[in-house]
């Protein structure tokens, strides 16, 4: 079982990739809230560790839910995947997920009980997502509605990860934190569209992609429009840090705008030539944008604050 679980992890949830990304996401979220509220230092290492591991467990649960939702389609059209080919069963994945969830719940209960309400909202949204919000028939064939509903998990996760700071402080969040939650929602859409653009020759029967539903032209424009919206929200989030960072706020602002300008042309290249290389370029650009936006908003401002003695 342990051996098969490791093989599954390598294929469907590579920890070597996800763990650093999730840790960066959790750190940036808590750091952004902390700088925004004008607090010095960082949260305690124990609370950060609990938050990072819990966030990783939540994303693993989202993978398990996807395995369940796609089970029928995968059994027919994607039999090379671990579950339909018999490497691991859905029941075994549920047991692993429940064990991970129980450990995280106990850790939050003992060491960070103030985070339980935010964690409860995440669990509720995961449950609703697993049931396709009780309208599976209506969502089927409507990829935009499916994406917009499922991406609600992103701001819910951000309420938890930023809560590593403000919930521990016992007060309300900073008013500008709403912009950060909106950015996380939009970033989730950037990732979702970016990972589901294909070259026409790579489209597969029974596998819904945005490029197959909307066509390469509309799909690439939708990705670019979503990326632009995320860029606007990033600028707003950076501007909210102005009173805390002073002139040094220009550094993350310039970095975010530069990154946006470098990545936007990926959509045009795919639109002109929807090849496998350009489709992969959009997927990589989506990941770079999300990682970069959290670095510019959370990590860089926090380091600037520390360098200034805060």
Question: How would you sum up this structure, described in words?
Answer:
Helices cover 77% and strands 0% of the residues. The chain is mainly alpha-helical and 310 residues long. The chain has 2 domains: 174 residues, UbiA prenyltransferase (Tetracycline Repressor, domain 2, Orthogonal Bundle), CATH 1.10.357; 135 residues. α3 packs antiparallel against α5 and α10 runs antiparallel to α11. The radius of gyration is 20 Å and the shape is globular. The termini are far apart. The model has no long low-confidence stretch (mean pLDDT 92).
Question: Which helices and strands appear, and what pairs or packs with what?
Answer:
Layout: H1 2-12, H2 15-36, H3 45-69, H4 71-77, H5 90-111, H6 116-130, H7 136-139, H8 143-150, H9 153-169, H10 177-194, H11 210-240, H12 242-245, H13 250-263, H14 265-272, H15 276-307
Helix pairs in contact: 2-3, 2-9, 2-15, 3-5, 3-6, 3-9, 6-9, 9-10, 10-11, 10-15, 11-13, 11-14, 11-15, 13-15, 14-15
């Amino acid at each position: 079982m342990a051996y098969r679980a490791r093989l599954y992890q390598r294929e469907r949830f590579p920890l070597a990739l996800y763990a650093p990304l999730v840790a960066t996401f959790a750190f940036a979220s808590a750091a952004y809230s902390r700088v925004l509220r004008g607090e010095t230092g960082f949260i305690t290492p124990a609370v950060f560790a609990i938050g990072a591991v819990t966030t990783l467990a939540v994303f693993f649960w989202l993978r398990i839910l996807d395995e369940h939702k796609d089970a029928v389609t995968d059994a027919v059209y994607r039999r090379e995947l671990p579950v339909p080919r018999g490497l691991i069963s859905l029941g075994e994945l549920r047991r692993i997920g429940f064990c991970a969830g129980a450990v995280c719940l106990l850790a939050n209960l003992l060491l960070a009980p103030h985070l339980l309400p935010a964690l409860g909202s995440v669990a509720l949204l995961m449950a609703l997502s697993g049931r396709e919000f009780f309208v599976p028939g209506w969502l089927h064939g409507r990829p935009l509605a499916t994406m917009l509903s499922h991406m609600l998990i992103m701001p819910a996760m951000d309420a938890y990860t930023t809560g590593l700071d403000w919930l521990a402080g016992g007060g309300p969040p900073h008013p500008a934190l709403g912009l950060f939650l909106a950015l996380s929602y939009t970033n989730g859409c950037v990732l979702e569209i970016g990972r589901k653009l294909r070259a026409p020759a790579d489209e597969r029967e029974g596998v819904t992609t945005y490029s197959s539903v909307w066509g390469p032209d509309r799909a690439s424009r939708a990705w670019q429009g979503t990326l632009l919206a995320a860029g606007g929200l990033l600028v707003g989030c950076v501007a909210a840090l102005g009173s805390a960072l002073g002139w040094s706020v220009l550094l993350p602002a310039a970095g975010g705008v530069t990154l946006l300008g470098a990545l936007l042309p990926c959509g045009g290249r795919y639109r002109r030539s929807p090849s496998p290389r350009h489709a992969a370029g959009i997927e990589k650009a989506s990941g770079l944008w999300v990682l970069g936006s959290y670095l510019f908003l959370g990590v860089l401002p926090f380091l600037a604050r520390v360098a200034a003695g805060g």
